[in-house]
Amino acid sequence: MDSLQSYLFISIVLFCLGLYGVMTRRNGVAILMGVELILNAANINFVAFNRFGGMTQALPGHIFALFVIVMAAAEAAVALAIIINLYKTFSTVNVDEAHELQG
Amino acid sequence: MPNFDSLAYFLPELLLTGLIVTIVLVDVMLPASKRDRIIWMLSLGGLAVTALALLLQPATEQSLFLGSLAADPYSRFFKWIFLAAVAIIIGISPATRQLDGSPRHEYYLFLIAVTFGMFLMASAIDLIIVYLSIEIVSIGSFVLAGFLKDDRASNESSLKYVIYGALSSGIMLYGLSLLFGMAGSTNVFEVQAALVQMPPKAYLTLTVALLLILAGFGYKISMAPFHFWTPDVYQGAPTTITAFLSVAPKAAGFALALRFLGVAFGANPDLNMGNWVPVNGVALGSLMAIFAALTMTLGNVMAIQQSSVKRMLAYSSIAHAGYMLMAAVVLNSQAFSAIMFYLVIYLFMNLGAFLVVIWVHNKLGFDEIAQWHGLGYKAPLIAIPMGIFLFSLTGLPPTAGFIGKVYLFSVLIENGDYLWLAVVGAINSVVSLYYYVGIIKVMFLDAEPTDETLEGQPAMTGLILALVVPVLIFGLYWSPLLGAVQSSLKFFTQGI
């Protein structure tokens, strides 16, 4: 199982699961979890390509993955703050019930 | 260029960072009553110093921080657009009633942080910086869209923004990871060097990676079908932020997307050559042509049905992204200059139109088009500039919008391969006349002259009148602007 293909397979499965989660979940927090899956799928890609692409000197893929982890944390912090604020005004975290802007 | 030497070319960004830190520190030391005022002055002063540093920056083509950023006239041109937009928005914010009761000092902080991100977007030549800069801009914008904490519409808009934004940048990141895998490097020039040697069996992966990346770029410039957040966010966000989002991050998105697509997916990475050909295996031109046609048609058709001025201008901004994408189909130096020229004009006319919306909202508290009834007689000093902005957005002579559109169309006509797109663009311009003139009709033609007047807000009125000047002057005498654009068409390029 130590081949690039197996890692890419896991990553694409994770990506599709994340996308499915974002599309089907109506709970704001669950949608964020789907987004996190997508980001982690990309992280697996970066690290796997770095490992099997023979780039052992500079490790650009690992560095990219570290940046993504930091950015994902920042994004989650802001998104959760927005969802908490939404709960205060709408008394729900269901994104479908926030539908005043339409047309 | 090594890290330490790069700092001299990074001065505007460093000053913005210093400004952000200063605001955070000063914020806690000031008494609450003076906070908004002092930080407002501090922000504008800091932006002025940044502008000075940008002005004094040597006009060379350099790569900074070991090939992460490009400091070249192209990125500098866009940095002027960002500074102008953010200075106007910060300038009018104290006079915006909608923001009363919100902590304006924090709002300035976020605007400057977003500006810093846009500076990086304009000069990104590394996949890591591409992702980071888009996220810096996005995360700040999410907060700004939801800045009216007790307002349901503002909350909803920031929720929609954060979900679409996080998803689009995640999808783009997956595309970047595929590109990284194929190229084995995060540097855009090295990516290009790898892509030109791709065997035909890799073309499918390459196209998939391109489409995923376009999802991220498309979200930033609100290109259909990644535009769904735009109308809701623009309608719900504070109007100053709507005006800002419709101009500055969109210009940053174009700066980043044009450079990235031009370098990474070009057969020749040297954009100074001017005759751009895509790398084998991706039909970038046809793809962009379809997106452009879709974007402008959707924007215009949806704009017709709107009853809220803000929402109408949101769809109109989607349509304008479509017009600019028309030129991005070709990506030669003529296309670059047409898009940059149009972005400057768009800055003036769109910000002007939004300032009028803010002015009316301050007076009446509504954004509905019907509420503008008779504004032409009640406040001619506002309504006549609005008419000029709307004519310019339509692209009627003698306004600057007309000249901008002429350049965009001439790119396609001289190229000759995408004449159908030029026809679609022309039809769209006619359609847009309907809803822009609809507002003029409500303001002037439908109403009877009255003695009732709406007055006040001299500072904002003055700024609106000041924005009319370039819209009219560049419609008659645009060669200085065109000269500035063409002298900015110098890109950093890496010798291989």
Can you tag this structure with a few keywords?
heterodimer; A: 103 residues; mainly alpha; Helix Hairpins; 3 helices; elongated; B: 496 residues; two-stranded antiparallel sheet; 20 helices; 2 strands; 1% strand; globular
List the helices and strands and how they pair.
The complex is a heterodimer of chains A (103) and B (496).
Chain A: H1 4-24, H2 28-52, H3 60-90
Chain B: H1 3-6, H2 11-29, H3 32-56, E1 62-64, E2 69-71, H4 73-92, H5 104-123, H6 127-145, H7 152-183, H8 188-195, H9 203-220, H10 229-236, H11 239-264, H12 284-304, H13 309-328, H14 333-364, H15 375-378, H16 380-394, H17 400-415, H18 419-445, H19 458-476, H20 479-487
Antiparallel strand pairs in B: 1-2
Helix pairs in contact in B: 2-3, 2-5, 3-4, 3-5, 4-5, 4-11, 4-14, 5-6, 5-11, 6-7, 6-11, 7-8, 7-9, 7-10, 9-11, 10-11, 10-13, 11-13, 11-14, 12-13, 12-18, 13-14, 13-17, 13-18, 14-16, 14-17, 14-19, 16-18, 16-19, 17-18, 17-19
Please write the string of helix (H) and strand (E) elements of chain B.
HHHEEHHHHHHHHHHHHHHHHH
Low-confidence stretches of chain B: none
CATH class of chain A: Mainly Alpha
Mean of the pLDDT scores of chain A? 91
Radius of gyration of chain B: 22 Å
Give the overall shape of chain A, derived from the CA principal axes. elongated
Secondary structure tally, helices of chain B: 20
Summarize the structure in words.
The complex is a heterodimer of chains A (103) and B (496). In chain A, 75% of the residues lie in helices and 0% in strands. Chain A is mainly α and 103 residues long. Chain A has a single domain, classed as Helix Hairpins. Chain A contains three helices and no strands. Chain B has one domain. The two termini of chain B are 16 Å apart. A two-stranded antiparallel ribbon of chain B has the order 1-2. Chain B is 73% helix and 1% strand. Chain B is globular. In chain B, a hairpin with a 4-residue loop joins strand 1 and strand 2. With 496 residues, chain B is mainly α. Classes of the chains: A mainly alpha (103), B mainly alpha (496). At the A-B interface, helix 1, helix 2 and helix 3 of A face helix 6, helix 7 and helix 10 of B.
